[in-house]
Structure formats: structure tokens, C-alpha cells
TrEMBL record:
GO molecular function: ATP binding; hydrolase activity; proton-transporting ATP synthase activity, rotational mechanism
InterPro entries on file: ATP_synth_F1_ATPase_gsu, ATP_synth_F1_gsu, ATP_synth_F1_gsu_CS
Family: Belongs to the ATPase gamma chain family.
Purpose: Produces ATP from ADP in the presence of a proton gradient across the membrane. The gamma chain is believed to be important in regulating ATPase activity and the flow of protons through the CF(0) complex.
Protein name (record): ATP synthase gamma chain
Coiled-coil stretches noted in the UniProt entry, renumbered to this chain: 253-280
Predominant place of localization: membrane
Biological process (GO), any one: proton motive force-driven plasma membrane ATP synthesis
Subunit: F-type ATPases have 2 components, CF(1) - the catalytic core - and CF(0) - the membrane proton channel. CF(1) has five subunits: alpha(3), beta(3), gamma(1), delta(1), epsilon(1). CF(0) has three main subunits: a, b and c.
Species per Swiss-Prot/TrEMBL record: Peptacetobacter hiranonis (strain DSM 13275 / JCM 10541 / KCTC 15199 / TO-931)
Length: 297
């Protein structure tokens, strides 16, 4: 029995060591991808910030002409842009996104624009209407996202949808990532006004003698605002996709690190168990030999 016990322990150890090699390799790959993803996410932010500054300045001059983008109306149908991962083994990363969408949606009316392989598989299986989709977060490009957001804005202008939400994972640090639910349309005008005041105060602090120039718009402030809001929405969503991809790599790295640590702990326990079983087997054999020697006397 002792021999069978040690063989079983050795088999389990070999299996866990094999799994540990996989989790350790995935941890290293995710760490490498995380560094690159963070760089891409940081590089995409300045463009979005500049667009937002221009948009809130233009919104002040457009005034009532941007009603279609800022006025709330009866919500009959909504659209959710949901960003999940391309792969699994990332802890609760994908599940948290799916849970957020399922809590907000009306399956009979709402539509979903999934971004990422796992999102496409999940919402297709659930039977959601999917007007557009992006198969990969890792290989998503700005032009692809820009085309989709333009089509969604057109649907919003045509009143085929009444609200557009963006659900993604905000990257805060390598250990902390949080799901964010952001309403893209209708635009919150009060938020724009507050941000305009903050922008003015910041510029006055940085340059007290600066004189605010008089702005002229060609062909018109309304046309410029419409173009800016389209560009800003696309850049905002694209930046969210980049942050989500970084969050996916961080979640996978944390999950694989946790799995590797658990494998190490199990191996240590099995090693101790194996030593006890082996020692017990040796003691039993010595006892049997001593007993046999006594019997021959």
C-alpha cells in the first residue's frame, strides 16, 4: 500500500509541475503584454484630452443648436458598447463586464456592440441584436472603431436608439481594475459646462495675463461641434478599449501568479506527504526484515 501511495503522489506532483510551468509561462507573457498595452493606452490619451477641450469650448458657442445630442428623450431602445477579452483565464475580468451589461439591458429591445472575442461569443449566445462587432481588442484599430461610432451616432440622430452606453474596464494599476459604465449619448451638457469652468480656471492660473481670443468657426460652429463629438466619441471608446486590454493582461497576470503560488503550495505539501510515505515504507520494510531474521533464529 505504501508503494502505491508514493506512486500516486509522484503522479500528482508531475501533473501539478506541468500545470505550474504553463501558468508561469502565461504570467510572463501577460507581464510583457501588459507593459506594451499600458504604453499604448497612455499614448492614446492626449488626443482624447485635446478633443474634449475643443469640444467643450465649441459647445459654449453652439448653445441650443446641439439639442439633438444633449437633450434627454423617452428611452425606448438603448445600445451598449461592451468591451471584454479575447481569451479566458483572466480571473473575473470577462464575467464582470457581462454582469454589468445584463443588469442594465432589456433583452427584448436593447442592442449590443461587442468588442473582443469573448464578448462576441457571449452576446451571440444570449441572442442579443448585434449591429456591429469587433472580434479582437488586441488588434482593434482606430479607423475601425471610428466607423462604428459614426454609424451609432447616425442611429441616434435617426432616433432608432435613444441612449448609448460604453462599458469597459478602467485600468488603475497592475492590481486594481474597475468596470466603468459611461453614458455617451445624450451628452451631459451640465458636465461640459462644469468642465469648461475648470478649464478656464486652470488656464487663468497658468497664464493670468492671457486674453481669451475670439473664436470663428468655418463652415459653422454646429458643423464643427458635430465633427468634434464624432471624433471625441471614437477616441474615447478607442482609449477605453486600450485600457480594457491592459486590464485584461493585468487580470490574467494576477490570476496566473495566484495559480502559480497555489501550485507551489500544493507541491510543498505533496513533497512533505511523499517524504512521510517513503519514510513509512522504509520503516515497514526494516521491521519486516527484522521480524524475518528473528523467525529464523
Amino acid at each position: 500500500m505504501a508503494g502505491v501511495g508514493t506512486k500516486e503522489i509522484k503522479r500528482r506532483k508531475a501533473s501539478i509541475e506541468s500545470t505550474r510551468q504553463i501558468t508561469s509561462a502565461m504570467n510572463l507573457v501577460s507581464s510583457s503584454k501588459l507593459m506594451k498595452a499600458r504604453e499604448k493606452a497612455e499614448r492614446s490619451k492626449p488626443y482624447a484630452y485635446e478633443l474634449y477641450d475643443m469640444m467643450i469650448r465649441t459647445a459654449a458657442d453652439v448653445k441650443s443648436s446641439c439639442k439633438e445630442f444633449v437633450e434627454k428623450r423617452e428611452v425606448k431602445r438603448r445600445c451598449f458598447i461592451a468591451v471584454a477579452g479575447d481569451r479566458g483565464l483572466a480571473g473575473g475580468y470577462n464575467v464582470n463586464i457581462f454582469k454589468s451589461v445584463m443588469e442594465l439591458r432589456d433583452p427584448e429591445k436593447d442592442m449590443v456592440v461587442p468588442v473582443g472575442k469573448k464578448a462576441c461569443e457571449y452576446f451571440t449566445k444570449k441572442g442579443f441584436e448585434i449591429p456591429f462587432k469587433i472580434e479582437s481588442t488586441e488588434h482593434c484599430v482606430f479607423d475601425e472603431m471610428h466607423e462604428i461610432t459614426q454609424n451609432l451616432i447616425q442611429l441616434y440622430e435617426d432616433k432608432e436608439i435613444d441612449e448609448i452606453y460604453f462599458i469597459y474596464t478602467k485600468f488603475r494599476s497592475a492590481l486594481v481594475q474597475t468596470v466603468r459604465e459611461k453614458r455617451l449619448f445624450p451628452v451631459e451638457l451640465e458636465t461640459l459646462k462644469q468642465d469648461e469652468k475648470k478649464l478656464d480656471e486652470r488656464e487663468r492660473r497658468n497664464n493670468p495675463k492671457k486674453v481669451e481670443p475670439r473664436r470663428q468657426y468655418l463652415p459653422s460652429a454646429e458643423a464643427i461641434f458635430k465633427r468634434l463629438i464624432s471624433e471625441y466619441t471614437a477616441s474615447q471608446v478607442y482609449n477605453g478599449i486600450r485600457e480594457s486590454f491592459a486590464s485584461e493582461q493585468a487580470s490574467r497576470r494576477n490570476a496566473m501568479q495566484s495559480a502559480t503560488d497555489s501550485a507551489d503550495e500544493m507541491l510543498n505539501k505533496l513533497e512533505a506527504e511523499y517524504n512521510r510515505a517513503r519514510q513509512s515504507s522504509i520503516t515497514r520494510e526494516i521491521t519486516e526484515i527484522a521480524g524475518g531474521a528473528e523467525a529464523l533464529k
